[in-house]
Design a protein that fits this description.
The chain is an alpha/beta fold. It has 2 domains: about 5-205, 2-enoyl-CoA Hydratase, Chain A, domain 1, CATH 3.90.226; about 210-255. It has helices spanning about 30-45, 65-75, 80-90, 95-100, 115-120, 150-160, 160-170, 175-180, 195-205, 210-220, 225-240, 245-255; strands spanning about 5-10, 15-20, 50-55, 60, 105-110, 110-115, 125-130, 135, 170-175, 185-190. The strands form 2 sheets. A 6-stranded mixed beta sheet has the order 1-2-3-5-7-10, sandwiched between helices. Strands 4-6-8-9 form a 4-stranded mixed beta sheet.
């Protein structure tokens, strides 16, 4: 795994840390590949109940590496076709991976989440932020658009009008405004950010593992299908889960007023 990523597991919770504080965790090639590898590793491990995503240093992520972006059309003289491929086979692998995996992800946003860094937040299932966090869809400031899925994820979270305002004005939202707009669900003291994120992650990870992942999958897919299709999927998933030992263990534990012992079976 890339040195740009720190992967730490504590029981059923994995913390993935973007580890390029020298670039404010800009999403350059090595970090992109390392993040995808880490996410897929956590998703494959059925013992992982939840992932926390955060950044090392003073920023969650500053988005794209500006010097790298500039070099594409100056130093490297990339053609239009090459630029398109850079997006398709580079940074766009992040939203495709994030939207496909079943393990829940909690974003613990420290400091700045700018451009693609803000979009990375929107790809997570739950977002909490330190009191000094800042959010911005700043692409137009350098004459480009959200090329990493931000225009797809952001309106689903804060609505089309507010998403348009963020994208078209490039305004910076502080943590309180981000909370009021629904971009995040909680603001905490900076020093308590990871503690609070772990508290949420542990609550999620305490539930039956397979049911938790299927619940996330159903939630994601249901946003883009008709009600009858969502109900059809729910019935199918429910029939699978009710055949599992963990379902029966959950019922018995509630009836017997004890802590359940799940086996992911």
């Amino acid at each position: 795994m890339s040195k740009s990523i720190i992967y730490e597991q504590d029981h059923r919770v994995v913390t993935i840390t973007l580890n390029r504080p020298d670039t404010r965790n800009a999403l350059s090639g090595d970090l992109i590949d390392g993040l995808i590898d880490a996410l897929e590793k956590a998703n494959r491990d059925k013992n992982v109940g939840c992932v926390i995503l955060t950044g090392a240093g003073k920023s969650f992520s500053s988005g794209g590496n500006l010097q790298e972006i500039k070099n594409m059309t100056t130093k490297d003289n990339m053609s239009q076709s090459q630029l398109e491929d850079w997006y398709r086979f580079g940074i766009q692998k992040i939203p495709l991976t994030m939207n496909a995996i079943d393990v829940p992800i909690v974003a613990a946003v420290n400091g700045h989440a700018i451009g693609a860094g803000n979009d990375l937040c929107t790809m997570c299932d739950i977002r909490i932020a330190g009191e000094d966090a800042k959010f911005s869809e700043s692409f137009l400031r350098i004459g480009i658009i959200p090329g990493d899925g931000g225009s797809w994820f952001l309106p689903k979270i804060i609505g089309l009008s507010r998403a348009a305002e963020m994208i078209l004005t490039c305004d910076v939202l502080d943590a309180e405004k981000a909370l009021n707009w629904g971009l995040i669900s909680k603001v905490v003291k900076n020093e308590e950010l990871i503690i609070q994120a772990k508290e949420i992650a542990n609550k999620i990870a305490s539930n039956p593992p397979e049911a938790t992942r299927r619940a996330k999958r159903l939630l994601r897919i249901s946003q883009n299908v008709s009600l009858d299709k969502a109900l059809e999927m729910a019935a199918s998933q429910q029939s699978i889960l009710q055949m599992m030992d963990d379902h029966r263990e959950a019922l018995d534990a509630l009836i017997e007023k004890r802590k359940p012992k799940y086996t992911n079976s």
